[in-house]
Design a protein that fits this description.
By secondary structure, the chain is an alpha/beta fold. The protein is 35% helix and 21% strand. Strand 12 and strand 13 form a beta hairpin. Helix 1 crosses helix 2. 51% of the residues are buried. Belongs to the thiolase-like superfamily. Thiolase family. InterPro entries: Thiolase, Thiolase-like, Thiolase_C, Thiolase_CS, Thiolase_N. Pfam families: Thiolase_C (PF02803), Thiolase_N (PF00108).
């Protein structure tokens, strides 16, 4: 089977709900990262054979194949097709895996994996609740209700279940959240994000300016301030401060074949080593990255000690904590530039966003192998392993 290579990976700096990025239409937000990939790499963009876009809330401004609309709004040729997919929070990680599979199969040579999510403009859950409120149906069909009677598939319930199953306390979660902010602050101050962030021109009361710093980072965060945030459930441990932040953002990864590298004079930054996707219990839901990682390492004939850095999406603090407890991963290698608790989780854009951060961190730290995984609705998980070249 042919190899697939990552040539480049970019992301926008996250915007908080109703914040600095909320004024940008999601199509234009997505176009910004497509344009950046084309501008940063010296090749004819007409050679791109497909754009695969992850987006979770595919309604309103994010409907009608938002990926194709982003292509049309960008500087890319109109001849480039695009498709929009939904694997919940792993949507653009799955886009990346589909892109790699197209290259590895020999059917394509240059594919862009892409993600878009404006959670300010198309709120989380809105595509389901709109129809339910209007009495037009429920995503739980009669047969699904029969299979899972009186079960509400809820990420918040799943997060609390993981807390109890693995014996975490609120203090554990808050301490992890504080560290996420500290690492994000250190990354900003050291310039670690500069090579991955695409500047966005935004309108402010004082005029136009560039958005280049993730808006969700709490530069004044302390254990006291995090611990003062109200719990989402009485008697629980999850609060908004130890969970991922609602976020607006876009990201993109350019994946090519060895043939394309030679024909277009492109320089690879990483090789795709393994692509894994698994599914398990849809009720606890967020636990599947643990078992998906086991399978990915086994298929790649690797051990955790072989991995230099890992990105595990911080949907809720207990997810990466449970992942480390299960896999034997160490915090020193995990989300070294902070995670979604500090930087935000723009749903469908998070997969390719995490890859941009992982790839840059491997390069700046001289690591060889990186692993990325995230929990997803329905009890699913993707794992991608890369080798820096």
């Amino acid at each position: 089977m042919a190899d697939a290579y990552i040539v480049d990976a970019v992301r926008t700096a996250g915007g908080r709900r109703g914040g600095r990025v909320a004024g940008i239409h999601p199509v234009d937000l997505g176009a910004a990262t497509l344009d950046a990939i084309a501008a940063r790499n010296d090749f004819d963009p007409a050679a791109i054979e497909d754009v695969i876009t992850g987006c979770v809330m595919q309604g309103g401004e994010q409907t009608m194949d938002v990926g194709r609309n982003a292509v049309l709004a960008s500087k890319l040729p109109d001849s480039i097709p695009a498709v929009t997919i939904d694997r919940q929070c792993g949507s653009s990680q799955q886009a990346m895996q589909f892109a790699a599979q197209g290259v590895m199969s020999g059917t394509q040579d240059i594919v862009l994996a892409h993600g878009i999510e404006s959670m300010s403009r198309v709120p989380m859950g809105s595509t389901a609740t709109l129809y339910m409120k209007e009495g037009l149906g429920n995503y739980k069909s009669p047969r699904l209700e029969e299979a899972y009677p009186k079960v509400m598939f809820s990420q918040f319930v799943g997060a609390e279940m993981i807390v109890k199953k693995y014996g975490f306390t609120r203090e554990d979660l808050d301490a992890y959240a504080l560290e996420s902010h500290k690492r994000a602050i250190a990354a900003v101050e050291s310039g670690a994000f500069e090579n991955e962030i695409v500047p966005l021109e935004i309108e402010t009361p004082d005029g136009k300016e560039w958005h280049t710093v993730d808006e969700g980072i709490r530069f004044d965060a302390t254990m006291e301030s995090i611990g003062s945030v109200k719990l989402l459930q009485e008697g629980g441990a999850i609060s908004a401060a130890n969970a991922s932040q609602i976020c607006d953002g876009s990201s993109a990864v350019l994946i090519v074949s060895e043939k394309a590298l030679k024909e277009h004079g492109l320089t690879p930054r990483a090789r795709i080593v393994n692509l894994t996707v698994t599914a398990g219990d849809p009720v606890i839901m967020l636990e599947e990255p643990l078992f998906a990682t086991d399978r990915a390492l086994a298929r790649a004939d690797m051990k955790m000690d072989d991995i230099d850095l890992y990105e595990v999406n911080e949907a809720f603090a207990p997810v990466p904590l449970a992942w480390m407890k299960h896999t034997g991963g160490v915090h020193e290698k995990l989300n070294v530039h902070g995670g979604a608790i500090a930087l935000g989780h723009p749903l469908g854009a998070s997969g390719t966003k995490l890859m941009a951060t992982l790839l840059n961190a491997l390069e700046t730290r001289g690591g060889k192998y990186g692993l990325q995984t995230m929990c997803e609705g329905g009890g699913q998980a993707n794992v991608t392993i890369i080798e820096r070249v």
